[in-house]
């Protein structure tokens, strides 16, 4: 009825595009169920395309990848205070640390499990989200160096996250990169020499060559959505969301449609019912401006978006039950894109992709054959 078709070849192509364009490694960011595409499927496709690392936010996400048999290096960076890290180390998962307490807890888990604890030191270079504040860097570097020398942890990476590489004026980006250089210099003085340095997200990787270092953490670009609207880097959108029209009805001018009867037909027209609603990720805020592609033509959503369905005003277009209405896709056939929906809803592309509900079955396609 409704489905999200995921083009795994597009994900592989996008990973390859970042590797080739930048000459540095790719950590495929598959958090939030691979931005809605399916974490394990997206991870496998990205690895096939040349990604060498995977990144997810939470321990549970990382352990789920391991449970699915994914063996590539994985980094996680969000966990609660008191996290014990033992399961993560047993599963060979790298941990981001930003405090002496976290370093000590990871070292303790390494002792308890007799497993290597690979850590990546995370610095706050100005975004004021995760990472150690500049005043804490000396303490964190000192303890990290101590534990590293003692063999209690292995300081494998040093990293930060950028606040605004998507903005054309690159707000604060230069200052963040200077701050990151200072962090690396301080870490070196403390005797640390992490093998893997990473800062760039998709936008930075494409726009700011000196942010690339060893690895780029690629999220939105992996799914083929241009991180900077209007720019083109040869990425291929991976997801198409569509549904069959359930029924159509011919109604006269002056017919109210949907909750509140907000929409009133201006002339005799055909209405088409599509089983995708806000629970499936059609943003309520997009009502009034949003369109679907039906039989090759863009037609507006009529009235409010309901939980499970929308009504399209298809005019005199011949549309029948069973025809396909496309919410978004690559745009090759005139269908709306994720960027269109982000604009219509006043949000960003990541919000649209991760908003596609769990109820919408994902169907995977690749030239190596379709799989469910
Ligand atoms: C989500 C995330 C990314 C990916 O960013 P994109 O802009 O989607 O490429 C990279 N790094 C971190 C720490 C993230 O949380």
Question: Which keywords apply here?
Answer:
Lyase, Ornithine Decarboxylase, Chain A, domain 1; single chain; TIM Barrel; 19 strands; elongated; 8-stranded parallel sheet; alpha/beta; 11 helices; binds pyridoxal-5'-phosphate
Q: How would you portray this structure in words?
A:
- It is a single chain.
- With 372 residues, the protein is an alpha/beta fold.
- The protein has 2 domains: 8-223, TIM Barrel; 239-371, Lyase, Ornithine Decarboxylase, Chain A, domain 1.
- 29% of the residues lie in helices and 23% in strands.
- α5 (86-90) links the parallel β4 and β5 (94-97).
- α6 runs parallel beside α7 and α10 (338-345) crosses α11.
- The protein is elongated.
- The model has no long low-confidence stretch (mean pLDDT 96).
- Pyridoxal-5'-phosphate binds next to α9 and β9.
Radius of gyration: 24 Å
Along the chain, the helix and strand elements come as EHEHHEHEHEHEHEHEHEEEEEEEEEEHHE
Chain-averaged pLDDT: 96
CATH architecture of the largest domain: Alpha-Beta Barrel
Helix content: 25-40%
Strand content: 15-25%
Note the topology.
Layout: E1 2-7, H1 8-22, E2 25-29, H2 31-35, H3 39-48, E3 53-56, H4 59-67, E4 74-76, H5 86-90, E5 94-97, H6 100-113, E6 118-122, H7 137-149, E7 154-159, H8 173-189, E8 196-198, H9 202-207, E9 215-218, E10 239-244, E11 247-251, E12 256-257, E13 263-264, E14 269-274, E15 291-294, E16 297-300, E17 310-315, E18 324-328, H10 338-345, H11 349-355, E19 362-365
Parallel strand pairs: 1-19, 2-3, 2-9, 3-4, 4-5, 5-6, 6-7, 7-8
Antiparallel strand pairs: 1-10, 10-18, 11-14, 12-13, 14-17, 15-16, 15-18
The structure holds pyridoxal-5'-phosphate (PLP).
């Amino acid at each position: 009825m409704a489905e999200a078709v995921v083009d795994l070849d597009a994900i592989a192509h996008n990973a390859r595009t970042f590797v080739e364009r930048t000459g540095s490694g790719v950590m495929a960011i598959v958090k939030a169920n691979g931005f809605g595409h399916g974490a394990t499927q997206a991870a496998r496709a990205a690895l096939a395309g040349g990604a060498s690392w995977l990144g997810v936010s939470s321990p549970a996400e990382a352990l789920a990848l391991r449970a699915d048999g994914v063996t590539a290096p994985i980094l996680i960076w969000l966990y609660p205070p008191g996290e014990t890290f033992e399961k993560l180390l047993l599963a060979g998962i790298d941990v981001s640390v930003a405090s002496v307490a976290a370093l000590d807890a990871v070292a303790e888990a390494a002792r308890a499990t007799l497993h290597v604890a690979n850590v990546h030191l995370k610095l706050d270079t100005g975004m004021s989200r995760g990472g150690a504040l500049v005043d804490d860097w000396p303490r964190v570097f000192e303890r990290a160096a101590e534990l590293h020398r003692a063999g209690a942890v292995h300081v494998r990476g040093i990293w930060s996250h950028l606040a605004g590489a998507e903005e054309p004026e690159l707000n604060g980006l230069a200052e963040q990169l200077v701050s990151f250089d200072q962090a690396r210099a301080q870490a070196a003085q403390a005797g640390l020499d992490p093998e893997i340095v990473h800062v760039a997200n998709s936008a930075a990787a494409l726009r700011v060559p000196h942010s690339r270092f060893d690895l780029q953490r690629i999220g939105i670009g992996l799914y083929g959505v241009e991180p900077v609207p209007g720019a083109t880097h040869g990425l291929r959108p991976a997801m198409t969301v569509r549904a069959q029209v359930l029924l159509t009805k011919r109604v006269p001018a002056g017919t109210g449609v949907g909750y509140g009867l907000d929409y009133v037909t201006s002339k005799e027209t055909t209405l088409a019912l599509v089983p995708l609603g806000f629970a499936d990720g059609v943003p309520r805020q997009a009502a009034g401006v949003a369109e679907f592609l039906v039989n090759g033509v863009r037609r507006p959503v009529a009235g409010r978006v309901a939980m499970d369905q929308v009504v399209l005003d298809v005019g005199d277009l011949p549309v029948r039950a069973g025809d396909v209405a496309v919410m978004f896709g690559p745009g090759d056939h005139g269908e709306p894109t994720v960027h269109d929906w982000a604009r219509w809803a006043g949000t960003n592309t990541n919000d649209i992709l991760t908003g596609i509900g769990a109820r919408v079955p994902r169907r995977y396609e690749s030239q190596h054959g379709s799989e469910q």
